[in-house]
Automatic annotation (TrEMBL):
<dbReference type="Pfam" id="PF02897">
    <property type="entry name" value="Peptidase_S9_N"/>
</dbReference>
<keyword id="KW-0720">Serine protease</keyword>
<dbReference type="InterPro" id="IPR023302">
    <property type="entry name" value="Pept_S9A_N"/>
</dbReference>
<comment type="function">
    <text>Serine peptidase whose precise substrate specificity remains unclear. Does not cleave peptides after a arginine or lysine residue. Regulates trans-Golgi network morphology and sorting by regulating the membrane binding of the AP-1 complex. May play a role in the regulation of synaptic vesicle exocytosis.</text>
</comment>
<dbReference type="InterPro" id="IPR029058">
    <property type="entry name" value="AB_hydrolase_fold"/>
</dbReference>
<keyword id="KW-0378">Hydrolase</keyword>
<comment type="similarity">
    <text>Belongs to the peptidase S9A family.</text>
</comment>
<dbReference type="InterPro" id="IPR051543">
    <property type="entry name" value="Serine_Peptidase_S9A"/>
</dbReference>
<feature type="domain" description="Peptidase S9A N-terminal">
    <location>
        <begin position="151"/>
        <end position="333"/>
    </location>
</feature>
<dbReference type="GO" id="GO:0006508">
    <property type="term" value="P:proteolysis"/>
</dbReference>
<dbReference type="InterPro" id="IPR001375">
    <property type="entry name" value="Peptidase_S9_cat"/>
</dbReference>
<dbReference type="GO" id="GO:0005794">
    <property type="term" value="C:Golgi apparatus"/>
</dbReference>
<dbReference type="Pfam" id="PF00326">
    <property type="entry name" value="Peptidase_S9"/>
</dbReference>
<protein>
    <recommendedName>
        <fullName>Prolyl endopeptidase</fullName>
        <ecNumber>3.4.21.-</ecNumber>
    </recommendedName>
</protein>
<dbReference type="GO" id="GO:0004252">
    <property type="term" value="F:serine-type endopeptidase activity"/>
</dbReference>
<dbReference type="InterPro" id="IPR002470">
    <property type="entry name" value="Peptidase_S9A"/>
</dbReference>
<feature type="domain" description="Peptidase S9 prolyl oligopeptidase catalytic">
    <location>
        <begin position="531"/>
        <end position="709"/>
    </location>
</feature>
Length: 757
């Protein structure tokens, strides 16, 4: 669990400081870098360890051998006691039994697998051809990645004239992809992180650019990194899913590396960010509820970092810089009703009435660099309660905010010149956005992409000079004309209205007879992943209805939405999910016998809980690396994430009420003999975030309960659910590979073999 830079911080400002929790999304989900296309895998979070042969520093590329053996983990040689040996033996026996069961079952789905694979390959090839990776602009130069190759071109020249600088294969990483790219201010050096799908850690490679790029340094187990100067790189080291040390390394005359910062509190995770104007590099130490930021002046990168504001419980903040002023995105200040949301004589161009009835949550404030304490913070702009700030970008004369309210996306442009704010509603079909990298803060245009689960990314540009939004027609994209988007509000047990986003084929008749796939997450203040996926489009074409339930515990409606669904409020998320599914059925979207519930990681808590309390609402449940044994996991403080997770689930070791509360909803603890839906679970043998042992024990207990119920109720036609576990030797907790897309659809049809169009 960890922070992933600016966007994660921004999400934290509206619902909680976002960790690399048991989810990772890849969307989504790991968006530190602003250059994260789905196809070329330039993402923003780095979490992979590699074991390849090494390119020695000073080697000229291309060369075909690479390694970072120093990043390989060495098994502990501590003497194990009898209880550990017994536990390991039980784990091995359960795993062996499940693997045998899987090997017996999987051949029966061979024909179905072939059909799904052919269809997905067709869609994958189609949208790969039209996809375009974001560009990184430095003056006249443009850098981009395609198919594992880094290209350099000119901004005003055709991409056909771009030259290849190097490829992943040149580095010996044929099975890895590029996660992050950072280019030094003078463009002499490039730092990249490489990750394989099977690991949680990344390797950072620094290259000296030129006609023949030279490998300067290889750093294993790196999470984030930023250039503080032309030849000075700061980076964070990752160990056991934690980042607590910041190092500085140099590449010119006196090459050296030294420790700059160490975080002592196990609840906090450290990452790095550079302000838009590159004046400061920020060291961000964050827990789920609290932030602390240190500034490194890039004009004096060897001086000690300066503290902005000491950590204060409940205070989350992120720093930008413009013209000797720090701009602070923060939750500072008690929520209070207000009549004006703008200060400094700003003119508001949108309807104020809705805002005057709401409450402040996240705010944009400012303070002088020399007096950065919170007592000097002045309000610039405040957001409406239940409005989520998805991302934020500072430019020389403007700042741009991407907002989400009631499922709709908005663009909020604040002009520091005209002292005005313009709110632009983005297309109604849009559910996700991707802000492209803009290294130059003086640019006059902001580029971004919009998408939805069934709409491939479309590129847009906002012109600060023209004050208008332009759709970029870079390449012809197939228009999704037969998919309808519906937004609903379900009334939960306490009368709270819970948003639902629904997609279905316009040509589908008798929707109450169509299969329904319901998605849920509801944890860590993280939104459901609603970016484009070919498998979702395939399901729509085959007549499925897709529903996304934005329950409490997630971040879709801001900070309070997360707080209302964590710790002692976790059951509210369960009530929300139940209300959503019932409403979907009531308005004619499918029925229980055609309904499948899908969840990943911590989303497995609510999905598994509903499976125990309301099994009659579902035909099947499909889970990926699910967190289903909350109580036992949170009792084990030796696990790498337990201490950090206490802010989400509570501390059952020290709080008896917390223990009883977790036990009341924990999926594993509440299994009982009853008629369960079918269940298909995909797990990963080396998952560091969700222990496989808990999943193995959950499946065993669930299968026994289902069989016990069947044996007690020997009615004619009594249905015994399929309970299937696929334990994959490869892949990681946050797998977003092509194989995962195939498995997702395949497992869906295995669990609930509905007829398709």
């Amino acid at each position: 669990m960890c922070y992933a830079g600016l966007r994660n911080l921004l999400q934290g400002l509206t619902f909680s400081a976002k960790y690399y929790s048991k989810h990772n999304p890849p969307q989504t989900v790991c968006p530190f870098s602003k250059i994260a296309p789905k196809k070329c895998h330039i993402l923003g979070c780095s979490k992979s360890a590699c074991t390849h042969r090494t390119v020695p520093p000073g080697s000229i590329l291309p060369c075909r051998f690479f390694s970072c053996k120093e990043g390989t983990k060495v098994p502990s040689k501590r003497k194990q006691d009898t209880s550990i040996i017994t536990s390991d033996l039980l784990h091995k026996n359960l795993l062996k039994a499940e693997q045998k069961n899987w090997n017996n079952i999987s051949p029966t789905y061979k024909t179905m697998t072939k059909r799904i694979k052919e269809k997905l390959e067709e869609l994958h090839n189609l949208y790969t051809l039209i996809s375009r990776s974001p560009r990184i602009r430095f003056g006249e130069n443009v850098y981009f990645e395609e198919n594992g190759c880094i290209f350099l071109g000119k901004a005003d020249d055709g991409e056909g004239n771009a030259k290849i600088l190097f490829s992943v294969e040149d580095l010996g990483f044929s099975d890895a992809f590029i996660q992050r790219i950072r280019i030094s201010p003078d463009q002499r050096y490039m730092a990249i992180s490489l990750k394989s799908e099977n690991s949680e850690e990344a390797t950072c490679i620094i290259l000296k650019l030129g006609n023949l790029p030279v490998v300067e340094k290889v750093i294993p187990s790196v999470f984030s990194f930023e250039w503080a100067a032309n030849d000075v790189l700061y980076y964070t080291a990752q160990k056991n899913l934690k980042c607590q040390n910041v190092f500085m390394t140099t590449f010119t005359y006196q090459k050296h590396t030294k420790l700059v910062y160490t975080e002592q509190d196990a609840r906090f995770f450290v990452d790095l960010y550079c302000t838009k104007d590159r004046r400061f590099l920020t060291i961000n130490s964050n827990s789920k509820t609290t932030s602390e930021v240190w500034l490194v002046d890039t004009r004096h990168p060897f001086e000690s970092p300066a503290l902005v504001q000491a950590r204060t419980t409940g205070l989350i903040y992120h720093i930008e810089h413009r013209k000797d002023q720090l701009y602070i995105l923060t939750t500072y200040g008690e929520p209070a009703e207000y009549k004006a949301i703008l200060t400094d004589n700003y003119i508001h161009r949108i309807n104020l009435d809705a805002y005057c009835r709401s409450y402040r949550n996240s705010k944009l404030m400012k303070a002088p660099v020399a007096s950065s304490g919170k007592e000097n913070w002045q309000l610039v702009y405040a957001l409406e309660r239940k409005t989520k700030l998805v991302d934020f970008e500072m430019f020389s004369d403007d700042c741009i905010m991407f907002l989400k309210n009631a499922g709709h996306l908005y663009l909020n442009v604040i002009s520091f010149v005209s002292h005005s704010v313009q709110l632009i509603k983005l297309p109604t079909w849009a559910c996700e956005f991707e802000l492209e990298s803009h290294p130059e803060h003086t640019t006059s245009t902001c580029y971004f992409q919009l998408s939805s689960p069934v709409h491939p990314p479309k590129r847009f540009a906002y012109s600060f000079k023209e004050n208008n939004l332009i759709e970029q027609a870079v390449q012809e994209v197939p228009i999704i004309t037969n998919c309808h988007t519906t937004r609903l509000l379900a009334k939960s047990k306490d009368e709270t209205l819970v948003p639902i986003t629904v997609f279905h084929n316009k040509n589908s008749k008798e929707l109450h007879r169509r299969p329904l796939l319901v998605h849920v997450y509801g944890a860590y203040g993280i939104d459901l992943n609603m970016s484009f996926k070919e498998e979702k489009l395939m399901l729509i074409e085959e007549g499925w209805i897709l529903a996304y339930c934005h329950v409490r515990g997630g971040g879709e409606q801001g900070l309070s939405w997360h707080r209302d669904g964590c710790q002692h409020n976790k059951l509210k998320g369960l009530h929300d999910l139940r209300a959503c599914i019932r409403l979907l059925h009531q308005v004619g979207f499918s029925q229980p016998k055609h309904t499948v519930l899908a969840a990943a990681s911590a989303g497995g808590v609510l999905a598994g809980a509903l499976c125990n309390t309301d099994p009659a609402l579902l035909r099947a449940m499909v889970l990926q690396a699910p967190f289903v044994d909350v109580l036992n996991t949170m009792m084990k403080t030796h696990l790498p994430l337990t201490i950090e997770e206490q802010e989400e689930w509570g501390n059952p070791l020290e709080d008896e009420k917390c223990m009883k509360y977790i036990k009341s909803y924990c999926p594993y603890q509440n299994i009982k003999p009853q008629c369960y839906p079918s269940v298909f679970i995909t797990a990963y043998e080396n998952d560091e975030r969700v222990p496989l042992t808990g999943i193995l024990q959950y499946v065993q207990k669930l299968r026994k309960a289902a069989l016990d119920h069947a044996s007690r109720t020997s009615k004619k036609g009594n249905w015994i659910p399929n309970i299937i576990l696929d334990v994959q030797a490869n892949g990681s907790h946050c797998d977003s590979s092509w194989e995962h897309s195939l498995n997702e659809v395949w497992s869906l049809y295995c669990a609930a073999p509905f007829p398709c169009n």
